Amino acid sequence: MPEFVLPAGWTSRTLAAVRRKLLAWFDAHRRDLPWRADRDPYRIWVSEVMLQQTTVAAVVPYFERFLASFPTVAALAAADEQAVLRHWEGLGYYRRARHLHRAAKDLAAAHGDALPDDPAVWAELPGVGPYILGAVMSQAFDRKLPIVEANSLRVLSRWFGYRGDPREGAGKKWVWKAAAAVLPTARVGDFNQALMELGALVCSPTAPACGTCPVAKWCEANRLGLQAQIPPATKAKKTVEVREVAVVIRDGAKVLLCRRGPDASRWANMWEVPHGEAVAGETVEAAVRRVARELTRLDVTSGPELVTIRHGVTRFAITMTCLEAIRKAGTYHSDFYAEGRWVDPHDLKDYPVSSPQRRLADELTRASRQLRLI
DNA sequence: AACCCGGGGCG
DNA sequence: CGCCCAGGGTT
Q1: Domain span at residue A260?
Q2: A258-260 and A336-338: which strand pairing?
Q3: Average pLDDT over residues A202-223
Q4: Inter-residue contact A260 to A266 (CB < 8 Å)
Q5: For the Nudix hydrolase domain, which residue ranges apply (predicted)?
Q6: pLDDT digit string (tens) for A289-330?
Q7: Which of A196, A224, A252 is the last residue of a domain?
Q8: Using N-to-C axis directions, what is the helix angle for A188-201 and A130-141, rounded to 10°?
Q9: Is A19 helix (H, G, I), strand (E, B) or coil?
Q10: Is A285 among the residues known to form the active site?
Q11: Total domain count for chain A?
């Protein structure tokens, strides 16, 4: 695939005209979003992290709450990590929050509350890749750095009629070159946001509104009628089935949670096992029974809760047999492991989790109450 | 290059 | 139910 070159017939004046057109459209149609109120690099940074793989509508309330609790980078740096993670519950991709917190500590220690106008500093921060670097630098400091994300990728490849896959290999290079080539020398941040805003509001993945697009008359995909083919559809991801088991029997000690790989017969890993090392090759059921027996000194013969997880979608097939076994022991109760922490079933009622998890939580809570375990 | 991470919205 | 979303890190 060729490197980025302007289409035949384009001059620097054409490019300048298109830039003006897009910026004017942005001025008229930009959404009023909370992180667009000013050019505070901290607010912009937080918004960009939240917006990773997450829709604008989903982010807005989280952004408001987060900024109310952690209004400055110093406030975030001083916060407890569990407090930060609680503000993230329901957003997903929790590593983003940990990286953000860690990076805030680094920045606050080195620069206080005055975030540096220095790409080299930002590029070293955990969780800051090429996109967030360009986004923060251009929006907060008007530095001339490009951004490429799902929207601008679609806009640019349609605009210039790129026929390869701009997400991989040579296509990735091409789209970053294109994003850099179209940048104006002023209002860089606005221009980057205009590309994304156009992708979000007009140049949508399916059925783009080319009739109202401010740059349609310079768009190769529009001219050739190839909007549906550019960019090419993403390859379907293989569905991997994983079986997980979560059990804890608390008597001062916690036992837990292993995960089986696709072969569904062996332990893939153990996440936290203060008690109950799994023997290699031991089945889930056998190990949990053995550990439960050791802790309760009762003969626990029934199996554990089984949790089936498919890619991206979580489905549960639950048996409450282990809970019943615990009830027989009389003095124990169960906990549930969710989003990286141990959660008491009682607290799961208000825990922000997806609906399948919610059903599991409700079931556990109900069962626990009936069994007077709490 | 392939894979992992999460949850919601939408057709 | 399957695809998509203001990506980055790890292997």
Answers
A1: 242-370
A2: unpaired
A3: 95
A4: yes
A5: 240-366
A6: 555 455 444 333 333 333 332 222 222 222 233 333 333 333
A7: A224
A8: 120
A9: helix
A10: no
A11: 2
Mean pLDDT of A4-33: 94
Q: How far is CA A253 from CA A256, A257, A297, A346, A357, in A?
A: 10, 13, 14, 19, 25
pLDDT digits (tens, 9 = 90+) for A250-298: 333 333 333 332 333 322 222 233 333 444 444 444 555 555 455 444 3
Q: Which bases of strand C sit closer than 7 A to a protein CB? A: 1-9
Say if residue A63 is in the same domain as residue A196.
yes
The answer to whether residues A351 and A338 touch, using CB atoms and an 8 Å cutoff, is: yes
The residue type found at A81 is: E
Q: Judge contact between A215 and A43, C-beta under 8 A.
A: no
Question: pLDDT tens digits, residue range A71-101?
Answer: 999 999 999 987 898 888 778 888 899 899 9
A214 shares its domain with A263: no
Q: Is the pLDDT of residue A152 over 50?
A: yes
Residue finishing a domain among A224, A251, A277: A224
| Closest alpha carbon to C1' of C6, residue | A51
* Nucleic strand B near CB of residue A95 (< 7 Å): yes
Q: What is the dihedral of CA A290, A293, A299, A300, to 10 degrees?
A: -70
Query: CA-CA distance, A40 to A189, in Å (whole number)?
Result: 13
Nearest to A334 by CA among A294, A367, A362, A309: A367
- Catalytic residue, from A3, A48, A64, A81: name it: A48
Amino acid at A329: A
Quick one: A140 and A52 in the same domain? yes
Q: How far is the CA of A371 from the C1' of B11 (A)?
A: 43
